[in-house]
Specification:
heterodimer; A: mainly alpha; ABC transporter involved in vitamin B12 uptake, BtuC; two-stranded antiparallel sheet; B: mainly alpha; 17 helices; 72% helix; globular
Chain lengths: 325, 391
Amino acid sequence: MDFLTILQILDSTVRLATPLLLACLAGLYSERAGVFDIGLEGKILASAFFSAAVAFTSGWVWIGLLAGIGASMVLAALHGVASITFRGNQLISGVAINFLAAGLTVVIAQTWFRQGGRTPALSGDGRFENVVLPGAESTIRGIAQQGPLGQVYSELISGHSILVYIALAIVPLTWWVLYRTRFGLRLRAVGENPAAVDTAGVSVVALRFSAVLIAGVLCGLAGAYLSTALSAGFVRDMSAGRGFIALAALIFAKWRPWYALSACLLFGFFDAVGNRYQNIQLGEIVVPVQFMQALPYILVVIVLAGLVGKAIPPRAGGEPYVKER
Amino acid sequence: MDKMPKWADVLLIPLISVVLALLVSGLVVALIGESPVRAMEVMVRGAFGSAYGWGYTLYYATNFIFTGLAVAVAFHARMFNIGGEGQAAIGGLGVAVILLGVAWPHWTIALLAAIAFSALFGAAWAAIPAYLQAKRGSHIVITTIMFNYIAASLLVYLLVNVFRVPGSMAPESGRFAEPAHLPSASDFAGFLGFPASAPLNISFFIALLACVFVWVLIWRTRLGYEIRSFGHSETAAVYAGINPTRIIMISMLISGGLAGMMAINVVMGEAERLVLDFVEGAGFVGIAVALMGRSHPVGVVLAALLFGALYQGGAELQFEMPAISREMVVVIQALVILFTGALDNMVRMPMERLFLALRPRGAVGAEANPVPTSPVEPHEPPKVDPQGSDR
């Protein structure tokens, strides 16, 4: 395996980790505020469809992105109404949202485009092009002729969609918001002890709603990335369990932003390796591709079992807050 | 104490929720430019209009009874088993192992073996998440979701590398031997007009027996009493000497076993071989069925029938009104879960207020000094509360 092959795998790791990272950070805001969100998958899917559909119709991907974020936020608001306003079961609400998105996207896609539940292929301004950073090569031949450092710069750092850089920038931003702002302190507090926040005269409902809506925005970015940057158009069930892998990454990261980045890169790496090699030869043992696909889930079970470290969720997670009278 | 009469709680509220879900679904159909009334007509006719339709409706309902009961039993112990999908897939593995591994002389014995193996495999797949919940406090919802994906990968691997017929490209096992085929509806009820193509088979009666089993277990045995008390209040149950680990393990094993038994209907009864993705979301439909059926076997049967009709009617809908995609059924399913599960309070709170307002004066006075007449109500729906399982 030569240097450039390794770089290519790492490059595709970054691409595949981006939607996971955005969804994982979405889950982080929501769960840190005490609202379980297993509806990440549905929000990603809804955004993937609406961003591709609107990008195709309008011919401009940025309008598509806005539409995707809007669709994801509508589902997020539904989750908020069910689990915060009506104090319903957050897990069941998440399950419902996943199904709602899986069904509605195909039903609407069939009505609008009549192509069996997909959108037409996007091209030109209809999708996010790769950003070529200044001084970087963009052709395979050009990259191959560079020295190692140039190759790292051109292959790995340059040449991603703008959403990849945005996602990477959101990690430090999230850290700053959570640990260095008043809003972040309150957000973390409302996930641990909502009664204390309420006693301090801060609205639990408003805080939780804003966290859930932030999660909507981030899932919207993740979905738009899937359908307008990673691929060119929407196909049914294109989120393919990424919402749940993101959830797994969130637990793996123990609900912390920087750890979330590493966990998503790790899971993205599994995905990249699984895409490139069908079976991996490790001495005498052949690791099947299905094992690589299942690895994130197996790792999470191991972490949850407390065999490696201990993942302690926010204490008030999943619990509707009832104001004392 | 009881703000509403029992019948309102078990009948009226689920009914209102389902009507709301159907109204919103009708709105969706209207928005995509089709007639909701005609869509409803097509679906009802498709599901119940012919013996052929019934043959499919009851076949789907059989799946949903198994998975619905699985979720319901876990609900009684306040466990949310979202892993029916994976447990059913592994149950199918059990069915394939025993039917391919042994030359069965007759379907009756083969059926007993398939029941045992599907339940055993399904229960085994639920055992690890249950153990982790009971001993390590790992959230059962997360672990069972993860196990769904692990099961899917495992099944693909085994179908491609172990079960696949040599020379064939399709990821499916060889067909089971002729004597192990279950009688289909046209064999045992051909006089009712079921055509040979209808997939309904003898497993339907196994599903009904499973309902009786669950009813007896939950409401007529000491174990069932312990499961329900644990579901209502863990601290009270522990105080009464009930062992939480034992209850979590047993209820989840039964739940997983029931989910696994779904494979009898599909793998043994219909496909007659192990195929990829045979569960087709039935594990998730079980959640909707258990919520709507208020975790009672009778409610589960009725809700499973409704969803069976939706699935069969949805297939017909695609033929008659091509503008409406089959996924409309998934939308309806989502709305039923939303209204009966997550938005339960939205329906319940106004109804409670209504019944309080309608209550005669004397009864209001009596409430202040309640007479302890009612024993444990048999229909008490457990509130699914993740907090209870998150210790």
